[in-house]
Design a protein that fits this description.
Chain lengths: ~290, ~290, ~290, ~290, ~290, ~290
């Protein structure tokens, strides 16, 4: 019985140590803005969804301002299928006509966005869900490749709303639908939307939750950290390839636009964000400026 | 040519007179909060939609704080039909299972809400769309009649968010989906949701946009104004019947809860709201307290 | 009877349309500062006085900050006559000795200023009357031509008070009497005073209410709009002559000093200000910068 | 030469002692509001005028908020005479027709008010002159005795403006002209106006500057201090008589209305206000509540 | 190697879980004020001192406002000894003459207070040390038992300074020296001072760090929690005895004065405060109100 | 008896004149920050201590923000002697080991600082005592000459705390102990500390209270005023020598760092500060910039 008590006490003391280990990180990031692109497995598996909601609630409580930008590809695909609306992709972008955009909006702004909001609220945080149409938060124009239809490039971010909501203790959760200058609406790639918002806010961190370990070398070993200038070479050497290219591109753009640090993090790992932020050994690839 | 010019000048001068006639109303309502239940024809016909967006933008610009709460019944019915999900009503309430609620949310929060937001933004106002889940804006519990499924009664309104958004120059547009205390979500009758929000805000006006002329007597003549105490008698005398009963009920509840004036307004009339507010002769029935 | 009703309804709907036509102008000018030189017929005729008071009240209610600077020539003349104090003019400036200045102050600060204030207050606005001596709002030095006596050129404007009063929802009404650096007081030309205040406030508009139609060409046709650079030529060509020269001079100075747009408006036309601001076709001459 | 130096040094040291003696009073009254009725000799003699301006400037600089309400009887009489307008008094109130009121306003708001403002500004303070019409600062209704014409009783004070101006570092100087609820303007007795303003502001002190030593007993000896309850008896015993009766009445009303202390002070004594406030031995009669 | 990696990962994940377990407590106490009496072993042993500084820094960073009140008995004893000043105690209070008080102040305000401040600052918090004399933070009068000399009972707390400093992100550290109404200074028992400050601030928690396990029953078993009403009985039954009596007295007084919860915590246990606040099983006795 | 009364009245009137003579100085310095190095006789003699406390209280009440930085040499020496700790000086700096620094801190932060605070509080001001460790107000590094031990040069001033405390109506009183970047604490020369704080605050005045008349010429005559550029020459000519050299050095550094005026004032003269500030003929040497 005594050893059990000792065990308990030891465990207690372990816990306290952990809280204290987080102190320098809490101090370092107090008041900072982190823009987090939320998607992939972390948004699909029930337990990962709950963990994510806890994670961002904790960030908010220790003084960090998390801004969530989410995707929703698979759910969109499912509803399109249920409605028997055919869909196809050109260069990784979903060809989006009026009917498809309506489905995209219903899923992103109506379903996914509010589910994330509810999860965070249930975990103790206070979230407010917005689409890029709200208060003209995101302004876009048609992408150059008109074949893809109503897909847009962001040309303006109304940071005023985001800051206001954030300053009042809420966590903004943003669906990547944008208002068009010509009265239209646009579907925006979530990674790009998140990066643009991070730039507009001069965020301290831009974190991309993905379904891969991070950036890997030719032997499949993870790069823990990379400099902006190294990215170009890795692409030329075909070490960074495929879907990872636009992701590192978002990071590089964010860094150029004033974001301090960017992270490509494995969203399949529970609490990947907390591990990346509050421990010395993160769980993905950090891409930083060259100095 | 001269007469043409005189005609123009006369028209100009008419316009100015109209602007000035609005002055006492603008003065009277400066700083007031108006909760407007938006629905029916005014939300379906293209031209009425545009006019409504202009109207609420104007209200905001002349110093009134409009809060929009919207329904979306027909659009919900359409998507349910497209998805081949059967639906039925009990006592005027849609029986709502998990699958149906998902569709309700997609349509209300994702489609209808954002369309209203976009319309207002395009007319010069600045709107932000929220569902009752955002920041736990609306908290509900299951209605007594459990046969209807996930339909809720409002038991709490987080006015803090609404006021904050309104104070920052934005027009809140609210979809009547509520957060449940037990982790569930609920579909809320839009009239009731609007009335509850009006009460919680102690709004100066609660305006119900409907597809009828207002409350009518046995000869089909419109009551321009009614007192709270007269309503009960008119129901007993079967002069107020059917779908009008819950509507006048919302108004009476709102008055009891501290709202100053309530209006049942014909949303099929273009600019019904402006006519009701800025002219002596409104376009519906005003229901007021007994003093 | 029915047609009468239809007529009424049509009229109602006309009114609402007018309100809505003003919306883009209201939006455009929300938060702007308009400095209005008030004088001439608009300050003499009873009905025009009332209309003016309504107009500026409306401007304030729709979010514009009107600042009124007024003259008072004829009333001054009358009191001087009643008191048998002889008076004469040199180059359009009243020769002002101590005794005359006392009369000028009594009429401007005591009578005219407070009447304008009362008119605006009675029309629903909230006005506060100030002379340039209040809080050293206007600082002047003697004009070069010492023959005219206590007539001054403005060398400083204390914008702090004006902004403060304006920010608190009041309409400042300013009598053009200035404090002298040497302990004296000065009579200031009202057009000049208004222009200087507009400059000091970097006003969006400077509006000169006069008793003429505006700037006219050699055929007596009104220039609707003129550029700053055209003014000089029109003076050289003797198209702009006489009393109009100092008026356009005030406008040109205001433009040089940072005012965005200036207007010479016919104060004899009822609601000239509203027509100029809220309709496409104004009632005077607009003088703008050269770009 | 040494003794001269010693003399100088002694004088210096005397001065410093005086500054320090004021310290407890400065501390006691920091942040307090003093309403001062300014009139009589103190407003007529050149040197007293200058001293008064210095005094209130000093009050403001040491953290007290002086509010000046002034009369102007003699100047009004002079202008009426110059204009050959006959005038007469009923029960101490000037019978005021439209023409007379115009003269009253010109003198009070235009001349006297602005002269006080200028004097204070020249002495280093920052004053703003207002009439009771400005921002509807004073609202009045006709006195019961309609024979006196446009003479009013105050029924409302807009303290918002006074506080705002005072909070911004300015000294409000108020002319006792009031706005009527029926669109008329009224002449107000300056003592009464000052007392009403003191009540509305819950002033710490209400100071009546007069041309007498204060309240005197039957032997002509000054009462240094009197309690509210003693006043009635002194009037009954005919010790307080004539023009002193309304003055003590103002004080008693002010005390009933929440003013902490009232003073009837001899305005003929230079710096009477400073002596009353900053030294133990005042120069008039203090009337306080009964506790 | 793989198992090593797994071990690391497991450890990481443990850490994250701990952070998240703290979330409900962080949420619960966000914005709360905790007054902590700091003394005993926790203030003597080097490692405990460092841990304490970390703990309060962490509290501050997660949104709690810790207020530290410290003792300093042993250090005072040492300096008195070094200076060969004899000292004695009456009823647990140090007999304090002028010379002794000087030593007490030097040690408490000069040495102990600043060492705590420095420790906290070095651990990442931002502390400001104050004595009760600063801004008359603590006002005291002589205790009844005059034999003890300059020992005081607190009769006033200036919470304004504490709140201000706390609101600006600093942790106030307070030495229990008080200002006397009669110009004297007083030595205050640190437990009492802390309790009085907790009451004055209506603190959520008052935590007494001591060198015992907490309140124990007759078998030496710790009471985890006690109600206010139980304390009296335990004293009567002589279960609570000796030095514990005044400590529980401080807690009971604090509860009566509006403090929500009080804790007697074992300061010899590292991180006792964090364990008490952030885990379900605390390390001392909680004394609460009777409901 | 009459002449006695006249005498009294004359004296009164003298006092009022003195108050008014201070008005232009009060006006000139309203809102200014004065950093005062307090030391020497003014900190030792009982009556001078009281006078100083009165003086700075008065400064605060008339709108100036005094910041006090104090020394404490003689008291430190006494305690070191009592504790039989040997002490010695190198180039005017006390050789400071750990034990000595502890004594320095106890005396400065614990005794002298709190005595000054109490004196000011007793005279009506509201003071808060801080050491440079509080909120890391002063950051220092070891002086180059390592022989002197823990003596530091200031490398950073946290003006945020000083301004915050000052803005809230308190007078900051600062003991010249600094926090070291390497975890150590340092003893700082009080003149230098005061000068650095004055620079960091861009103070309007930096006043050095000393025990000499000021800077004197070769005939022992006081320089009333000196320009920065003259100082160097006077040192080269050996007119400024010995202990005066570092004092004028502090002034010159302060001027270079943005302080507007510096004063070396004779602290043995009662109310030296007030005489220097509020009268034309000061009591020391003013050193100003070269323009």
């Amino acid at each position: 019985m005594n050893s059990e008590k000792n065990g308990k006490e030891k465990k207690m003391s372990e816990k306290v140590k952990t809280l204290l280990e987080a102190l320098p990180y809490i101090k370092k990031f107090a008041g900072s803005t982190f823009v987090i692109k939320y998607g992939g497995a972390a948004m699909e598996e029930v337990s990962l969804k709950t963990e994510f909601a806890k994670d961002v609630s904790l960030l908010k409580f220790v003084g960090i301002n998390p801004i969530i930008v989410h995707g929703g590809g698979p759910m969109i695909g499912r509803l399109l299928k249920d409605l028997k609306i055919p869909t196809r992709f050109v260069n990784g972008l979903r060809v989006t006509d009026e009917k498809t955009l309506e489905v995209v909006e219903m899923v992103l702004s109506g379903l996914v966005n509010k589910e994330i909001v509810k999860n965070i609220n249930d975990m103790g945080g206070r979230a407010i869900g917005l689409s890029g149409k709200d208060g003209k938060l995101l302004i876009a124009k048609q992408v150059k490749d008109t074949k893809v239809g109503l897909v847009g490039d962001i040309i303006g971010v109304n940071t005023d709303i985001i800051r206001e909501i954030s300053r009042h203790g809420y966590i903004p959760v943003i669906a990547p639908i944008a208002d068009g200058v010509n009265g239209k609406s646009y579907n925006i790639n979530a990674d790009t939307a998140a990066g643009s918002i991070a730039q507009a806010l001069s965020a301290e961190k831009f974190i991309l939750l993905t379904d891969v370990k991070g950036v890997m070398d030719s032997n499949g070993k993870l790069f823990s950290t990379l400099k902006k200038s190294e990215i170009k070479k890795l692409i030329q050497k075909k070490i960074i390839t495929g879907g990872m290219i636009p992701k590192v591109g978002c990071c590089v753009d964010a860094l150029k636009g004033g974001v301090r640090e960017t992270h490509i993090v494995d969203g399949r790992v529970p609490h990947a964000i907390l591990l990346e932020i509050f421990t010395d050994r993160g769980v993905g690839t950090e891409i930083t400026g060259d100095k």
